[in-house]
Every structure is written in C-alpha cells, then in structure tokens.
Specification:
Radius of gyration of chain B: 29 Å
Distance between the termini of chain B: 70 Å
Shape of chain A: flat
Strand order of the largest sheet of chain B: 2-1-3-4
Oligomer: heterodimer
Largest interface: A-B, 95 and 88 residues
Radius of gyration of chain A: 25 Å
Largest sheet of chain A: none
Structural class of chain A: mainly alpha
Strand content of chain A: under 5%
Number of helices of chain B: 8
Chain lengths: 354, 239
C-alpha cells in the first residue's frame, strides 16, 4: 500500500478524506436500510477524541476538587492498609504520604496536571501521564482506609489511562506539545482509543454479569436477595441515607418488579460488548444501565457517578465533530476556487505539484 | 509491489511444519491439562473458574474475529494494539486472580453475585454524646466524605472483628477500631458548635420479616469511647 500511495503521510491524508466522504455518502443509505454496519466511533476524528479527553480529564478535575481526601491526614496511619503499588513502598513512606503536607502536595499537583491535560499545553502528554499516576495514588490511598476494594472510579481511570496513551492532543490543544502541525493520521488511529475505552468499560459490566450467572446462577436471580439488600441498605450507616428499600414493606408487589429488573440488568450486563456493534442495542443498554444506576442510588445507597459520566463514551458523538469538519472543508474549497481558476488559466509555477 | 523475501529468509517446509506442530501440540497439551485438572480437582469452585474463564475466552474470540473489528485491529498502530492487549489482559487477570489488594487497580468485579443466605443481618450503629448533654446518631461516612459509599461500613466491620479477635475493643484497649472512630469524632468536632465528647457503639441485629422501623432492631451496647482522651499520639504529631 505504501508503494502505491507514495509517502505514508499523503496516503494517510487520502485515506482520511476518502473515509469522510464515504461516510457522508453512505450514512443516509445505511439509516434507510436500518443496518448500522459500522462500529461505535468508527467515524472518530482528532476533534472527537480531543473533546473526549477534555470531558474525561475535566470530570476528574471537578471530582478531585470536590473530594476532600486531605482529611485522610487526620485518620490513624495504623488503620491504613496499602493497596496496589503502595504494597511495594517502604512503610516509612506512608506517614509522609498521609500527612497534611503530603496530601495537599498531591492534591495541588493533581489539579495542576489535570488542568494542563485539559488545556493541552506544552508537555501535555507528560502532564496526562503524571495525572493518571497521581489519580491512581489517590485512589490507592482512599482504598487503604476502606474495608473493601470498591470499583466506582476505576472505569473512568481506565479511560484517562487510554487517553494518555493516545493521539488525543492532536486537536483542541492550546499549544501542541510537538510545536508543529499535528500529523495527519487515518481515522482508525483516533477511533481505536475510543473503541478500547468502550471495550474496557463494557467488560467491567460483563464481568459482573458472568460472575453473577456462574456464582449465583438462576437461584440468585429468582431469589429475594435484592429485596433483602435493599432493606439492609436502609439501615446501614452509608454516605447516602435513602430508605426507599423500606417501601417494600408497604408494597410487596415492588419485589416482583425488582426481581424482574435484576434479571434484565444481568442480561444486559452480559451482552454489554454488543454496544460496540449495534446502535439500537446501545440505546436500550443506556436506558437500562442509567435506570440501574439510579436504582442503586435510591434503593442501595450506592452511587456510581464516575460510571455515569463515562456513559458519554457510549454516544456516537463523532458525528457532531464530523459536521464541523465538513463545513470547514466547504469553506476551504470556496476560498480556494479563485486560486484554482488562476492555475487553470495557465499561471506559471515553479513549485510543482504538492 | 512488495519485495519478495530471499529464498533463505522464507521458512522452509520442514520449519513451517515444525511451527504448525508446536502450535497444535501446545493446544493439545493445554486441553489435556485442563481436562486432568477438572478430573483431579472436581471442586465446584475450580469448575466455576474454568466456566468463567471460558466465557471470557469466547467474548475475546468474538471481539477479535468480528468482521467489523478486524479492520480496526489491523489498521491500528502497533503500539495501540499492544496497549489494548496489555490492558484487556490485565483486566481479565485481575478478574480471574480474585480479590487481590496487590493487583489494584485490576481487581475482581463480583458485586452482588452471591445469594443472601439469611433474612437476618447485623450491623454497627454509633451514637454521639455531645457536650451539651444531647445524644444523637453518628454517621462516620458523613464526616469523611472522601470515604463515601460503603467504604467506612466495611472498614469498621473488619476493624471490629480484629478487635474482637485480639480482645482490645474495651475503651483504652488501643484497638485500631477505637483509634479510627475517635479520629473521626475529632474531625467532626473541628467544625461542630456542639462537640462530641464520647461515642457509643451498638451491635444491632435485624430480621427482615419483623417489619420496618426501629422496633424490630435489637441493640446491644458494645462500648462507649471518650473522644477527648488521646489515643493516637503518632497522629497528633503528624503535621
């Protein structure tokens, strides 16, 4: 292919533009046929990937600003149990990490690197990698004071990790770190990171569904376990203190609804990787999963806010940026028309074909 | 279009057959080992492990062999493919390896997957004694908002079990349970007009079928811990 296209960059440009033209031509016919024969984010471009970078790192910035993890300095170090990479650090490091100065240093560094990653300034790639590392450190510290490893923040962290290792700084960057124009890449280089995030995110749901089916099986799905968990949650001293689970006493019919919902959610969890392939299934999946997360907040006092903000990746937002792309191309073509007319009129040029 | 490899660079028929043989022998060996393991260790957990890993294998094969996915995999940059393989591999490793704290953030995803065996359950409740003589419920998760959700509930459960094991739960016994609880009360006092002077811990038992409300809850006072007494000198010294 390289031999046919000449330089690789030229080939990539042609591939990019031809893919864009093909997408606009066939989009309407595909819609009419009702068969979305392409992957989610198949039409991703530099802008859509960069916009998603701003969304993910922006969410982390807001969540970091509102997370008072500097409080950990007031808790006894003796109650701290290291997780992940902290296992390998010497014990003498923990008191410094968990001191007021240490935690404030981590927080300020994290805010600065997240902000730099959003703006896309010079050395933004290094800032992104540093922020991903600091986020992991903070999450490890928080789990050190937890009785179990909760999963709430992990998919959003995976997304940040993938974005840090992808060409997400090719657009919407205040000052690209390579100091020259972003290289033209084929669409697939922008699509692959977004699709990887979708795969990782859907795998986390698939895991829960598969384990539930294998460990608990049908007896679990048809049992009253979910009703018991909902009532238990109304009594436990958790952060959210909704007691909607107690409604089950007044309306026992709600129990049948919960059991049916449990089965439906488990089926959708197992089928999660299908979101990559089918648009209709994706919309149904989004409806079920959003309902599930709202339900866990109301009934079980567990809120997956990080997962909810990451659900944006399940929306085919690339189309919005492709529209902008096409209008920009049209403007360039209109501006170029007189120049082409000059060339057609036989204007001498020494530059030759570019 | 492409330069043909030299004759010496091409794999010879014998070498190709060798590679084919090696691949098939490895698959053959893996199948025998798996079958032998299932026969030799016919534990339900082992069978479930294999069923679970087989489910992930099917999903991976389906994803990687899908006609829509293959062009993306082939056209993606090599380092993108390697990153994807590494991340997906680590995610599955964490899932199959079980709840290993050392593997964080690649952990097991198994929330609400076991049937609730009993309609009876126990939990810990806390009551704050204020300086003005008032008493009220105390929720540690509201004090340390960064440890929200269920984190502190399970932390206190494990620390309580540890204190029971070592017999250090009595006030001044030096248990980590007491240190943690008193530290949270002090944190609360920093912004409170009516400070907490002591905190009582109750062991509560509840049966689902007894109906809603506190009437069905059995409460047993475990201990009352004074808050003002210093229990953690090291923490006070931490700047």
């Amino acid at each position: 292919m390289n031999a046919a296209c000449g330089k690789q960059g030229t080939c990539a440009l042609e591939e990019t533009s031809s893919a864009g033209r093909e997408s606009t031509l066939t989009e309407s016919s595909r819609r009419l046929a009702g068969s979305p024969a392409q992957l989610l984010h198949g039409q991703a471009n530099a802008r859509s990937l960069a916009a998603f970078r701003i969304w993910v790192f922006g969410c982390w910035l807001v969540l970091t600003l509102f997370c008072p993890f500097t409080q950990l300095s007031r808790l006894p170090v003796e109650a701290f149990q290291p997780t992940g990479v902290l296992h390998n650090l010497p014990t003498a490091v923990w008191p410094w990490l968990l001191s007021t100065a240490g935690l404030w240093t981590i927080k300020l560094l994290l805010v600065a690197t997240l902000l730099w990653s959003i703006l896309g300034g010079a050395k933004a790639r290094a800032a992104m990698i540093a922020s991903v590392g600091l986020l992991l450190l903070v999450q490890s510290l928080l789990r050190g004071f937890s009785g179990h490893i909760n999963h709430g923040e992990l998919p959003l962290w995976f997304a940040a990790l993938v974005l840090a290792c992808s060409p997400s700084l090719d657009a919407f960057a205040w000052r690209p770190d390579h100091r020259r124009r972003a290289p033209a890449r084929p669409r697939v280089h922008y699509a692959a990171p977004l699709q990887l995030i979708v795969v990782l995110f859907s795998l986390t749901y698939l895991f829960v569904g598969v384990v539930r089916l294998i460990d608990g099986g049908l007896p679990l799905l048809f049992s009253d376990s979910l009703q018991i968990w909902s009532i238990q949650a109304a009594y436990l001293p958790r952060y959210y203190t909704n007691d909607f689970g107690l409604l089950l006493y007044g309306w026992p019919q709600l129990g049948y609804l919960l059991t049916a919902g449990f089965i439906v959610v488990t089926i959708f969890e197992i089928l999660s990787p299908l979101v990559l392939f089918s648009r209709r299934f994706r919309y149904a999946w989004l409806a079920v999963i959003i309902g599930f997360h709202v339900g866990t907040l109301l009934l079980m006092n567990i809120f997956f806010v990080h997962n909810l903000v990451l659900l944006v990746v399940m929306i085919d937002f690339d189309r919005w940026f492709n529209v902008a792309d096409h209008s920009a191309k049209r403007t360039i073509c209109m501006n170029r028309q007189p120049v082409e007319a000059i060339f057609e009129a036989g204007m001498p040029t020494s530059a030759g074909p570019r | 279009m492409f330069a043909q490899p030299l004759r010496s660079e091409r794999p010879q028929p014998i070498a190709r057959a060798g590679i084919w043989c090696a691949e098939n022998v490895a698959a053959f060996w893996a199948a025998i080992v798996v079958a032998a393991m299932v026969i030799r260790f016919p534990h339900f957990e082992v069978l479930k492990f294999f069923a679970e890993s087989a489910a992930y294998l099917l999903v991976l094969l389906w994803l990687s062999q899908s006609a829509l996915m293959r062009p993306t995999i082939e056209k993606a940059m090599r380092w993108q493919r390697r990153t994807a393989a590494l991340l997906i591999g680590l995610l599955i490793l964490g899932q199959l390896a079980g709840q290993q704290w050392g593997l964080f953030p690649f952990v097991r995803w198994d929330m609400y997957t076991r049937q609730e065996g009993s309609a009876q359950f126990g939990y810990l409740a806390y009551e704050a004694h204020h300086a003005g003589g008032r008493r009220g419920s105390f929720n540690p998760a509201h004090v340390a908002a960064s440890l929200n959700e269920n984190r502190l509930v399970t932390k206190f459960q494990s620390l309580h079990l540890e204190g029971l094991h070592y017999g250090t739960l009595s006030p001044g016994g030096g248990s980590r349970f007491e240190q943690m609880l008193v530290a949270l009360c002090r944190l609360k006092n920093e912004s409170a007009t009516d400070p907490i002077t002591a905190v009582s811990v109750y062991e509560c038992g509840f049966h689902i079928h007894r109906g809603p409300g506190d009437a069905g809850v059995r409460r047993k006072l475990l201990a009352t811990y004074p808050v003002n007494r210093s229990t953690d000198a090291a923490q006070e010294a931490r700047p």
